[in-house]
Write a structure and sequence with these properties.
This protein is of the alpha/beta class. It has helices at residues 21-25, 31-42, 58-67, 74-78, 103-112, 138-155, 161-167, 175-181, and strands spanning 8-11, 48-51, 70-71, 86-89, 92-98, 129-133.
Length: 191
């Protein structure tokens, strides 16, 4: 694609929060793995790489930023007050969330662009539909992600995201190591 003149590519498949491609089709390449492979080629063309999903929290976003130039992160945004399709149930605000390859999303595309989809119902649905609780404001979420990214950059002495990709090193972790990193408190508060 870079030889053909594209400026950037998307890497990874089957990692989004509402994605069912892996279980449905047995096709899956995690975004960080795909990103590492793709970035190794893209750097020879000065091309950009975006990771396809897999960002569920600040930890995932920082890992993505250390590998690629950008990431698709619908799940982090749908949990904010900026999410479309909001509703309230029992005093709790929710947003409808559906995977881009879900049955409903596919049917909507087919109905809106029938000339692009002459063959209907030929693919298995690869996305899920559901609702998520809206947990805060978009402004606060961006502030928290930006603060976490800046702190990470400070640790590796990176002045910008490009230096983070250059100086940050991804090391393999055991499952226990991953679980330890994702703990948010050292103790439980007693109410």
């Amino acid at each position: 694609l870079f030889d053909a003149g594209t400026d950037g590519v998307k890497a990874g498949i089957a990692s989004g929060a509402a994605c069912a491609t892996g279980p449905e089709t047995a096709v899956s390449v995690p975004p960080v793995t795909a990103g590492l492979w793709t970035v190794s080629v893209a750097k020879h063309y000065e091309g950009t790489v975006w990771l396809d999903g897999g960002v569920r929290d600040r930890y995932d976003a920082i890992i993505a930023a250390s590998v690629a130039h950008g990431v698709m992160g619908g799940y982090i945004f749908v949990r904010t007050d900026a999410a479309p399709f909001q509703f309230e149930k029992n005093g709790i605000r929710y947003a409808t969330y559906r995977g881009s390859a879900s049955e409903e999303e596919r049917k909507e595309r087919e109905d809106n662009f029938p000339e692009l989809y002459p063959q209907r119902d030929y693919k298995a649905p690869e996305g899920l539909n559901g609702s998520v609780i809206i947990s805060g404001s978009l402004e606060q979420m961006i502030f928290e992600y930006n603060r976490a990214l800046r702190t990470t950059m400070w640790y590796v002495r990176a002045k910008n995201p490009e230096e983070l990709r250059k100086y940050g090193k991804l090391l393999p972790l055991s499952q226990t190591g991953v679980e330890e990193l994702k703990k948010t408190t050292l103790f439980k508060l007693v109410e």
